[in-house]
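Good morning,

Attaching, inline, the backbone tokens for the sequence recovery test we're adding to the shared suite. The designed sequence is right after.
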């Protein structure tokens, strides 16, 4: 075991970068802590530790590099998941950048993100610590008052402000001239510059996946750049055509309401279709894996969607393309998709079978529209249609959740003959997004919030023994207990339907069934022991031993969410060509 700097650390290409981006786990102490994390990440690629770092790290790195600052990304969460021996504090202590940048984009990272900031200052009291992300923006006034936080870069477009901040840190600019910045001045006083950098032209924002490949080779640290734990086996990629959103989902921190209230973005900023297709072509030269266009291509108008699809057709994109629609796409759009790309998948989130619940949440469409769209997608050769339903919505009670599963069976019976249709259901967990309409007007929407500040959310995560205790809300229609109970019951029923209609094998369905029942039973035992004040008892220690093994596949089999991909997932020749600059 190495006790000092290794030979590799002394090589010139291992020198520290100017800016080191650190992505924290949701819980810094997850490896030593007994906690039932439950189904909070079963329908997303990452684990319950939320090791997927914000894709904005790549565009931030790109802008900094073009301005002359070297960068490095270290996915601490992924490295901690990969090895029980990996010590994030030791890594941090050895780094010597000009600044550390820590993301607090999603609120579930609050415990891990703040703990990482504390570790940085413990070892490097004189190196600036910069925070950014949606949650960092919302809580900027609270965040900047922590002694380990020097700067908070706010907004949804921080590429240019971060460059200006680094120049100011070097003495080539004034902090009060850096847009979107909250900081402490030389006297320790908090100063807050307005969020004035809100670009409407975002063509200079690119997600270049060759950057992490190149950098991981430079630093001999592939795991540090993995977007999530299993990415090497399933290298899905994404293209982001938009900043902002045209829709108002009630609990979303990236909704139109939140963007206007928090990030000073009024309206959707869209990249030109040519830039979107250029990025897709670049990805196809690197990967033989699915690519998802994040955001509904219809939200900038029908003509914009047509132009994107025409550009995709022009470049002859051959990888699996995944399109998400916030409302069911009309027949002409699906026909245009079919004409533009040979293999495509569609994602729609109806949230509930009940149109009243759906409208209350912010999804204004009918079941008739949904079913017509499903039928059209099937007729037009869509390889897969994913439908996502949610638990914890306004106007939704326990019976409504069960009725949603009945609706899933109706859909599978009506449209599931060729196994194209894949329904999922998951709880709204662990937190309501700060800045969303429900967060700002909880009582009016029928919600009760148990935490409001960063400190309170960190305490929730520090004190919780189960994912139920993570939940920062309950509704007028369902308590925390009912949200949890309906989640497990709905998952078990839907798992049975998937087995019945051939969407999942008997063996995989049995795994989900067993894990769901085990997880539900463990949660009941946790509640009973806490109610009887038996923490520390023999029964509690026995339960803690069981919980030290992180359980997934509790509401669906994790690989169910995977889209089709090629056997050879990486285009090795294309990667080498790009690494050598022969694009």
């Amino acid at each position: 075991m190495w006790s000092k700097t290794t030979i590799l650390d002394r090589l010139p290409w291992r020198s520290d970068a100017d800016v080191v981006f650190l992505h924290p786990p949701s819980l810094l102490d997850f490896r030593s802590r007994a906690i039932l994390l439950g189904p909070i990440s079963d329908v997303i690629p990452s684990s319950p530790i939320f090791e997927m770092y914000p894709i904005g790290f790549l565009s931030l790195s790109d802008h900094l590099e073009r301005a002359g600052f070297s960068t490095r990304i270290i996915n601490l969460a992924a490295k901690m998941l990969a090895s029980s021996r990996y010590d994030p504090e030791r890594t941090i202590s050895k780094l010597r950048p000009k600044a550390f940048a820590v993301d607090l984009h999603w609120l579930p990272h609050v415990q891990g993100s703040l703990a990482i900031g504390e570790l940085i200052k413990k070892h490097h009291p004189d190196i600036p610590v910069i925070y950014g992300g949606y949650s960092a923006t919302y809580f900027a006034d609270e965040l900047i008052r922590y002694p380990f936080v020097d700067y908070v870069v706010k907004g949804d477009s921080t590429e240019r402000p971060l460059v200006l901040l680094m120049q100011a840190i070097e003495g080539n600019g004034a902090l009060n001239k850096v847009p979107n910045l909250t900081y402490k001045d030389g006297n320790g006083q908090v100063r807050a510059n307005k969020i004035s950098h809100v670009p409407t032209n975002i063509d200079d924002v690119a997600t270049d996946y060759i950057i992490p490949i190149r950098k991981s080779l430079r630093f001999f640290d592939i795991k540090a750049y993995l977007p999530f734990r299993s990415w090497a086996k399933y290298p899905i990629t994404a293209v982001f055509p938009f900043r902002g959103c045209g829709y108002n989902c009630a609990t979303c921190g990236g909704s139109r309401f939140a963007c206007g209230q928090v990030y000073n973005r009024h309206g959707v900023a869209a990249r030109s279709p040519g830039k979107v297709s250029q990025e897709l072509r670049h990805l196809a030269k690197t990967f033989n894996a699915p690519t998802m266009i994040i955001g509904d291509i219809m939200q900038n108008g029908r003509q914009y969607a047509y132009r994107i699809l025409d550009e995709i057709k022009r470049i002859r994109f051959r990888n699996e393309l995944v399109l998400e629609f916030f409302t069911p796409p009309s027949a002409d759009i699906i026909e245009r998709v079919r004409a533009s790309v040979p293999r495509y998948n569609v994602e729609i989130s109806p949230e509930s079978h009940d149109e009243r619940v759906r409208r209350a949440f912010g999804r204004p469409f009918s079941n008739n529209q949904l079913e017509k769209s499903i039928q059209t997608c099937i007729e037009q050769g869509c390889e897969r249609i994913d439908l996502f339903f949610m638990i914890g919505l306004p106007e939704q009670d326990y019976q409504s959740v069960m009725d949603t599963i009945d609706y899933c069976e109706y859909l599978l019976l009506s449209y599931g003959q060729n196994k194209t249709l894949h329904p999922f259901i998951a709880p709204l967990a662990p937190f309501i997004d700060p800045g969303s309409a429900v967060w700002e007007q909880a009582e009016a929407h029928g919600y009760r919030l148990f935490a409001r500040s960063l400190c309170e959310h960190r305490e929730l995560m520090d004190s919780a023994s189960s994912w139920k205790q993570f939940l920062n809300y309950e509704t007028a229609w369902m308590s925390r207990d009912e949200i949890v109970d309906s989640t497990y019951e709905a998952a078990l029923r839907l798992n049975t339907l998937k087995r019945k209609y051939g969407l999942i094998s008997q063996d995989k369905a049995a795994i989900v069934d067993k894990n769901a029942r085990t997880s539900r039973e463990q949660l009941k035992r946790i509640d009973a022991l806490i109610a009887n004040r038996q923490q520390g008892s023999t029964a509690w220690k026995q339960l803690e031993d069981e919980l030290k093994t992180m359980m997934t596949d509790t509401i669906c089999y994790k690989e169910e969410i995977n889209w089709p991909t090629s056997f050879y997932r990486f285009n090795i020749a294309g990667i080498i060509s790009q690494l050598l600059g022969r694009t």
